[in-house]
Amino acid sequence: MTSTQSKWLEAELKFDSRVVGKHEVVMTRGQGSVVWDESGRSYIDCVAGYGVANIGHCHPDVVKAIKDQAERLLVMPQSLPNDKRAEFLSELVGVTPAGMDRVFLCNSGTEAMEAAKKFAITATGRKRFVSMKRGFSGRSLGALAFTWEPKYREPFGEAVDNRNVDFVTYGNIEELRAAITDETAAVILEPVQGEGGVRPASPEFIQEARRLTQEKGALLILDEIQTGFCRTGKMFAAEHYGVVPDGMTLAKAMAGGVPIGAFVMTEEVADRMPAGGHGGTFGGNPLAMAAGVAAIRAMKREGMAEQAREKGAYFMEKLRAIQSPKIREVRGLGLMIGVELKEKSAPYIHALEHEEGVLTLQATPLVVRFLPPVTISREQIDTVVAAFERVLNSVNPRAERQAELAAAQKEQTQTE
User: Which residues make up the binding site for substrate (predicted)?
Assistant: First the structure.
């Protein structure tokens, strides 16, 4: 680590809130599927900002759009119509499923989920929800009610009110049928669970959720925050299942790296919200809108959904060809891929970063998650797979853990 790198890392660790664990590296630049740290070392990025950089880091069209817009207008509240906002809304509605042509604009996926919750209540006059075990819907107090993992909810106790949320096992149709009643406002689910281990839903489960919600007068809201915008091989994962939901939460890749969020819904859902019932200061700001227009146009022009489909199939084929007793399963959809191991994934993720220059994510303690930009090349995929195979063969988690325990014991003895 260089002295400059140490200085920046020291400053971030000193002043940061420390609620997010930090890697011991300072990233300074990105292009396409590669990022560089302060020392100039390159990494193939299979994190992509947690699935944000679908079109690659610093896509030239997005960069130009941001520069041009920054010279014209940066902020304008949604109460005052704006040319770039109108342009973005037209582009967005042009790629969403038919009938989903009303949009609430915000700044993140969690904000989109908060909006979805309120729109569902006003649209149905009901307050109960059905969410999924292993699902992740955000970390605000409202969105946490739909998030299954107890570690996210428990520190806040009763402030997270999920008494009106029924959790069902993802993929279990019988549980779903039992949970949806005449009191249900909405069923909220991810077409592919990300945090829950990269688990695609079966067509039968999604289609039954659509049928049951229509039968009971409830909404079907698909969380497409991570699956949207070509990640799974379609513009939206809903297209794989042949269903049109009542609403979709969107964010992440929608603006090529600029913070953005949206709840897209039918006219019937939108019209039930009273005027002034929801809002936000920065939602729909011209800078994010300009980036969003450029990003969506690039996705369409460059055939990124098809790229994700083809490259995802290639990536999973290569991963499945690895002969390792440590691998339990390779699963995914498009370029949203998880490799479930038979032991903890953290040592392998660490080794990929530090020894191989490949950035990956964890999804549950056992799963290594790969979320590369759609622009990743087959040659880069080959490099990632070869690196993964090497660390599977070289890393011994038990030995590493024993070394950690021995070092801790030695330190404790010296302190005493």
Answer: 139
146 in a known ligand binding site: no
Side by side, which strands form the sheet with 102-106? 102-106, 261-265, 247-250, 219-223, 184-189, 128-132, 165-168
Are 231 and 336 contacting, i.e. CB atoms less than 8 angstroms apart? yes
Asked whether residue 158 is marked as a ligand-binding residue, the answer is no
226 labeled binding residue: yes
pLDDT at 6: 79
Phi, psi of 50 (to 5 degrees): 60, 45
Rounded Cα–Cα distance for residues 341 and 319 (Å): 12
Burial of 389 (0-12, 13-18, 19+ CB in 10 A): middle
β-pairing, 247-250 vs 219-223, is: parallel
Q: Say how far residue 361 (Cα) sits from the centre of its chain.
A: 11
Cβ neighbours of residue 288 closer than 8 Å, sequence gap 6 or more: 107, 255, 258, 259, 260, 282
Four-residue CA torsion sign, 272, 278, 279, 280? negative
Quote the percentage of the chain above a pLDDT of 70: 94
Structure tokens, 129: 């929800």
> Binding residue per annotation — 122?
no
CB 166 within 8 A of CB 216: no
Angle between helices 286-301 and 304-320 (to 10 degrees): 70
- Residue 363 identity: A
User: Residue 375 CB: number of other CB atoms within 10 A?
Assistant: 23
Question: Is 413 within any annotated ligand binding site?
Answer: no
139 marked among binding-site residues: yes
Q: Is the pLDDT of residue 73 over 80?
A: yes
Query: H or E element: which one contains 36?
Result: strand 34-37
Q: Is residue 211 marked as binding?
A: no
Residues 6+ apart with CB under 8 A from 9: 1, 22, 24, 25, 26
Query: Which residues contact residue 240 at a Cβ distance below 8 angstroms, ignoring those fewer than 6 apart?
Result: 191, 203, 232, 233, 234, 333
For residue 181, give every residue at least 6 positions away whose Cβ sits within 8 Å of its Cβ, in sequence order, or none: 128, 216
In angstroms, the CA 109 to CA 376 distance is 24
More confident residue, 408 or 51: 51
**Annotated binding residue 136:** yes
Q: Is 2 annotated as a binding residue?
A: no
Distance separating alpha carbons of residues 186 and 130, to the nearest angstrom: 6
- Per residue in 353-400, pLDDT (tens digit) is 999 999 999 999 999 999 999 999 999 999 999 999 999 999 986 655
